[in-house]
TrEMBL record:
UniProt-recorded Gene Ontology molecular function terms: cell-cell adhesion mediator activity
Transmembrane segments: 256-276
Alphabetically ordered keywords of this record: Immunoglobulin domain, Membrane, Transmembrane, Transmembrane helix
Pfam families: I-set (PF07679), V-set_CD47 (PF08204)
Higher taxonomy: Eukaryota, Metazoa, Chordata, Craniata, Vertebrata
Protein name: EMB protein
One of the protein's GO biological processes: homophilic cell adhesion via plasma membrane adhesion molecules
Region ranges (Disordered): 282-314
Species for this entry: Smutsornis africanus (Double-banded courser)
């Protein structure tokens, strides 16, 4: 009997999200390989391979280019299609070109307004970008990017302190890696971390099939830097980037010390202002007292002059 196949159809359009349809049953289409190498694949080797279809609906607007990312983690039979919107079906003499990167490849005509390529994605060599271009009165294109699942790291740096323990986490949503590997950056090199050889410093835990933790013990300033988690899938590898900053215990005290210093400076300024103000008041009082003494002397002098004048008149 025919081997059981999993058929999944994903329709991509210029607007809205893709709609998925999952069907279990016999092979849903005759699959023509594109090269002699693919022809050598036996029925047994692909009996459990998923078959998927992706279609982009092209508008007839000149210069328009639509891009879609397609995530694959295991061997897959795939059909990529470009279909011209029905309202532009009047466009005639269209030249259809399919390319993998810059290399032109053959295609099939599914319908009058739909063109496809069929692929067996068996390893990382089959991944990459595939594009279709429609040339005529108007020119429009679409690009399918076949890629392995992306790994979620952490965009913002992780901050910890000397002597503490840091735990970094990487996740793969919706896909299960075959294996996880952690790397630390040393200059321009990435060095794999072997926690079995450095158990007093590192501990790597696979919390679940999709999550891995790297624990770094007894942090020092030298532990700061960039770390990478790498997930291995059947069709390739994907990395997530994490950054660790290790601070000394003096760092959190710096703001407090700065505040204390500012307070001391402020108190000193106030104290000096008080001293200056008191000295200024004392000088003002001394000047006032001096003026009063001078005034009294002046009045006494005037009194003596008036008395001598009266004596002369007599």
């Amino acid at each position: 009997s025919e081997p059981m196949m999993t058929a999944q159809t994903v329709n991509w359009q210029t607007q809205g999200s893709p709609s998925d349809h999952l069907t279990l049953g016999h092979s849903v289409s005759t699959f023509d390989p594109l090269s002699q190498e693919l022809k050598q694949v036996t029925k047994e080797s692909v009996s459990n391979v998923t078959f998927v279809e992706y279609e982009i609906l092209l508008p007839g607007v000149s210069g328009t280019s639509i891009e879609k990312n397609i995530t694959l983690d295991s061997a897959t039979r795939i059909e990529l299609s470009c279909r011209l919107d029905n309202k532009y079906s009047h466009l005639k003499s269209l030249q259809v070109i399919w390319k993998r990167g810059n290399e032109t490849i053959g295609h099939i005509n599914k319908t009058e307004n739909s063109w496809s390529i069929r692929l067996r994605i068996l390893d990382n060599n089959n991944m990459g970008s595939y594009s279709c271009t429609l040339k005529g009165e108007e020119e429009t294109s679409a690009v399918f990017h076949l890629q392995v699942p992306k790994i979620e790291g952490k965009e913002k740096p992780m901050v910890s302190y000397e002597g503490d323990t840091a735990v970094m986490i990487c996740k793969s949503f919706g896909y299960t890696p075959i294996a996880w590997t952690w790397y630390m950056t040393n200059g321009s090199e990435q060095i794999a971390i072997n926690d079995s050889l450095l158990s007093d410093k590192y501990a790597i835990n696979r919390v679940s099939a999709n999550v891995t933790h790297l624990k770094i013990l007894k942090l020092t300033k030298e532990d700061g830097g960039v770390y990478w988690c790498e997930a291995a899938f059947e069709l390739g590898k994907s990395k997530g980037k994490l950054t660790l900053k290790v601070l000394s215990f003096m760092v959190p005290l710096k703001p407090f010390l700065a505040i204390v210093a500012e307070a001391i400076i402020l108190v000193t300024i106030v104290f000096l202002c008080e001293i200056y103000s008191k000295q200024k008041e004392k000088r003002a009082e001394d000047e006032k007292e001096f003026d009063q003494v001078e005034q009294l002397k002046s009045e006494e002098s005037n009194g003596l002059e008036n008395s001598s004048t009266r004596h002369r008149k007599i």
